[in-house]
Structures are given as structure tokens and as C-alpha cells.
Amino acid sequence: MTDVAAVVRGTIAPQLDRALAASRANPLPAAPSALRAEPAHSAQLFGRLLGAAIEAAPAVAATPGTGADTTPARPADAPSASRPAADTAADAAADSAAATVIELLDAYRSGTTTPSAVLAALAPHWTSDDVWSDAVLRLVDGAEAAAAESTRRWADDEARPLEGIPFAVKDIIDVAGTIVTSGSLQTGDRVAPADATVVARLRAAGAIPVFTAATTEFACGGPHNARYGAVRNPWDPERWTGGSSTGSGSALAARIVPLALGSDTGGSIRVPSALCGTTGIKPTYGLVPRTGVASLSWTLDHVGPMARSAEDLALALAVIAGSDGEDPTTFTAVPLIEAEPERVEGLRIGVPRGWFTERVDTAVLDAHAAATEQFRALGATLVPIEFDDLESIDAECWTVFYGELAANQEANAATADLFDAGTRARFDVSFLPTAADYLRALRRRPLVQAAMVARMDEAGVDVVLTPGIGATAPRLDDLTMSVDGERFNLHDVIPRNTRLFDYVGFPALMMPAGTAPDGLPVGVQLVARPWDDRLVLSAAAAFQRVTTHHRLVPPSSAVRGLTDQ
Questions:
Q1: Which DSSP letter does residue 195 get?
Q2: Helix (H, G, I), strand (E, B) or coil at 167
Q3: Mind giving me the DSSP string for 99-121?
Q4: Who has the most CB within 10 Å: 279, 349, 365, 501?
Q5: Residue-averaged pLDDT of the chain
Q6: pLDDT of 10
Q7: Rounded CA gap, 477 and 483, in Å?
Q8: Which of 116, 133, 150, 170 is catalytic?
Q9: Nearest-angstrom CA–CA distance, 422 and 118
Q10: Is 280 helix (H, G, I), strand (E, B) or coil?
């Protein structure tokens, strides 16, 4: 067995050294300077772009505690993924484990099944000892009573937008009265005093939290969690799910829950989505409140939904978006959030090369190429686009991450031995950036954001389509990934195409786009300007209506388990 701690330390320290050297070699101009490089310029830019997005689509003011439910009610006869509602309702009634959120809502609406019946069908999988059991940490009390209430509401025509939908909650997101540990020995058996805003809003919309899902320690540790162990990938138990929303990705892939909450600081919603064959969105920074969510790196942290289709994501994101009066990064109004597949016709999609296609396996590149052709067939226009200086921007991502990690975890320095190998390695190097290093990275961010928006404007691009993660899921025994036969440590591959968009805060969606020769899923990523979340959702929904990648089921899943019985 490989010495995992040594591998992690040997990768992370040189990585940060290179990042700091690159940043220090390229200082910003000395004062006086006309650069719009104060951190507050990011908020100013996002405010301007929010205004533009609201002009392009209606806005809904968010009432604190209820979210901004900007998605119109879905008609009872609306098709889901090109299938009539009657068909999807019948399928959901026959096999709850295979059903998506929209399919379950169709089934509830038609009366072919009930939330109580779905809960009874799924619950045995949450205490199973199969591969997916790694995903489940603790059951949430009250699920049966909530399902009974949802069943009554459907019968009495009082259903709310997500009535009776079970969902999992990443173990850094508070669920009232439930032990929430951030996957760490440092936290003991901490009981959450109240629901995080996102959990409270999903509950208010009728959804039912059913279990807390595994995470890497504080959303940054290694695959081999010191408290709970590793989360095996349902596609191959010798592979990892990808971090840090490990349990959410595994549970969705295994079909033991149709919806989950995750967080994304360097790709932690999108990575398990790509490696497990599911769909997830990192929303625009400031769209979803982080109140009640453990902070890893507060200017990079995003909270968002994970599911099996873009249409499901749109329903959930509309519920959890908007200011709660607590998170200072959020705004009181948000643009319309929807998944409208028809928008793909005439959409201009930027296709970058360079950085995003380097250190990427041929299977991933092939899936990306096939996706671009599929979008062309759907009526989109493909436009070449490149962004400048991405290597140095990537270096700044590391600097921000480590500076804020040090600030968030310094109180645990005296008990650092309790960290797992991955967290300890990152904690040990997190104090290397100086104050000047950290502030340089923050000052550079608004310049990068403005430059990327300007490049998209110049090219007339609505969204950008990149390859997803550069290879299929890493091996758990040595933490490596294979790129065309060459093995890399997972840290050199996984965050390369995702972390940039946490730094700039743009909305980014990951969805499955095929399988590699090893039988494991690969993905593609859609990115848009801030507040254009509906464009990535709509483009993904259009893609998923004419493809079946998101419907593929891993060999270890509740669906296969039911089939085998």
C-alpha cells in the first residue's frame, strides 16, 4: 500500500512553492495605479453584471427564509427528457431508485406513487452494506413523518415545488438536531443547532432531508478520511468518487437518493459529478447563501445542488437561491433560474483549447468533441475562444485557498495530529503564503474576472464548453489517475479545469458525456458569465434531452440491486 500521507505531502508542497514563485514574479503595478484591483471591484463588477442579467430575464426578490423560487410551476403534462409525463410517472412508480426529481414529481402528481412509498423503497439502501454505504453517515430524524405530510399534501392538492423529494446533505451543511462533523475528528459529535439556509429552504419547498453524506475532512482532506474511511465509487470500488462532495456524488450515482446538496471550493460539486456520472452545478458566487455551512475558503466557497439531470438542478437551485439576510455575498434579487432546452438554438458556445485540453486523456477529449458536435446539431454555433495566462491564474487560486484555509483552521493547530493525511499536509503548508501573497491574489481576481467577461463579449459567446476532469476516477490504493497511460497524482489532474471558476465565481455545470474504455464515466463542463446560471442549465438540459449519458447506471447501484433480486 502506498504511503498516502507521503504522496500528498510530496505533491502539495511543491505545487504551492511553484504557485507562490509564479505570483511573486508578476507583481501588480506599484501605486499610484489606475487598476481596478481592489477586492471590492469584484462586487462592483458582479453588481453590474447582475443588472444586465435582470434586464435580460425577470428577477424575483428573495424573501429571507424562503429562497427565490423563480421557476414557474411545471405543467402536469410537460415532458421530461423527451418522454411523456405519463411514461415517467409510471417508471417512477415501478422503480423509485431510478427516478429523477422531475419523474418523482410527475408520479406524485399523477397519483401512481406517494412520498411515503418512495421513502419506504429507498430507506433500506441507506443502511445497506453495499459499496454505496460509504456515502451515508447518519439518518436524519423525522423523514417518515415528513413523507406522510407530503403524501397528504399531494392528496389535498397542497403540494409545494419539491413536495416529497428525499435529499442528502453534505456533512459540512447543518441539519437541525443532527450530528454534523465536517468529516473530522476535530469536531467531536457536534449537533447542528439549526438548519443551514439551503436545508431550511428545501424543507420549506417540501423536500425531505434523509441522511448526511460523507465528505473529505473540512471539504479539503484526502480520500482516506481518518474518521469515516474512503468513499468508494459505485462504478468501481477500487476507485474514488472524487472530492469533496464524496457521499453526495456516490449516493446519486448509486440511485439511493435523487437530490443532494454539495459545496464547491475547487471543484467539489463538479468533480464527483464527472467521476460518478451525475450532474451538478456550482452557481454564481453570491447566488446561494452559505449560512450554516462550514467555511473552507470563504471567497472560493459555493453551495449548490447535485442531481442526475440539469432540469432537476434548476428546480432545486431556484428554491435555494437569493439573499437570506445573513450571508453578505448574496443579493436581494436574482435573475430567472430555469432550464429551457429550446434556448440552445442560436446559442453561441465558446470552445477553448490550450489549458483546458492539456493533461486530459483522449477519452475525455473525444467526449468533449462529441458534445460540441451534438450542440452544433441542436442549433448552437461553436466559436473558438481562449483565455489568457491561465497558468498564473491557477497559481493565484492556490494562494487564496491556502491563505483562507490557514485562517479558518489555525485554532486546530494544537490538535493537528487529529487531521487526516490530506488535511494535515495542506494545513502544514497553508501558512507559507505571506499577507502580500494573499492580497496580491485577491487584487488580481477582479482583473481576471473583467478580462474573462471581456473576452466572452469580444467573441460574442454565451457559454463556454470545456472538457471535464482530465481522466477517469483515481485509484484508491495509490491516488493516481491515468492520462493516456501516464500516471499522475490526482492533485495534478482533478482541479485543473474546475478551480479557475471558483476563483472567478462564474457559474459552472458538470454533466456526464460518455464512458472511457475502462468503463468509467467522463464529463464536460459548461460555464457562463456571472448570473447566467440559466444558460448553462438550459444548454445542459437540451443536451440531456437527446443523449442518455446521464441515465447510465453503475454496476453497484440500487437499481441493479433491485434487478438482481
A1: -
A2: strand
A3: --HHHHHHHHHHTSS-HHHHHHH
A4: 279
A5: 93
A6: 81
A7: 17
A8: 170
A9: 38
A10: strand
Q: How far is Cα 539 from Cα 341, in angstroms, rounded to an integer?
A: 6
The rounded distance, in Å, linking the Cα atoms of 207 and 373 is 37
What's the average model confidence in pLDDT over 304-326?
Answer: 98
- Work out the number of other CB atoms within 10 angstroms of the CB of residue 391: 12
Per-residue cell: 408: 479558518
pTM more than 0.90: yes
- Please give the grid coordinates belonging to residue 120: 419506504
| CA–CA gap between residue 239 and residue 233 (Å, rounded) | 5
Determine which helix (DSSP H) or strand (DSSP E) holds 508, and give its type and residue range. Answer: strand 508-515
pLDDT of residue 508: 99
264-285 tens-digit pLDDT: 999 999 999 999 999 999 999 9
Contact 89, 80 (CB under 8 A): no
> What angle separates helix 143-155 from helix 101-110, to the nearest 10 degrees?
50
> Are 403 and 441 a contacting pair, CB within 8 Å?
yes
Catalytic residue among 42, 80, 96, 244: 244
Residue 259 has pLDDT above 60, yes or no: yes
The yes-or-no answer on residue 244 being catalytic is: yes
3-state secondary structure of 381: strand
Closest CA to 231 of 283, 171, 189: 171
Q: Catalytic one among 42, 150, 268, 538?
A: 268
Q: 78 pLDDT band (50/70/90 cuts)?
A: very low
CA distance 497 to 355: 8
Helix (H, G, I), strand (E, B) or coil at 209: strand
Q: Beta-strand (E) ranges in 24-101? A: 59-61
CA-CA distance, 57 to 79, in Å (whole number)? 23
In this structure, what DSSP letter does residue 69 have? -
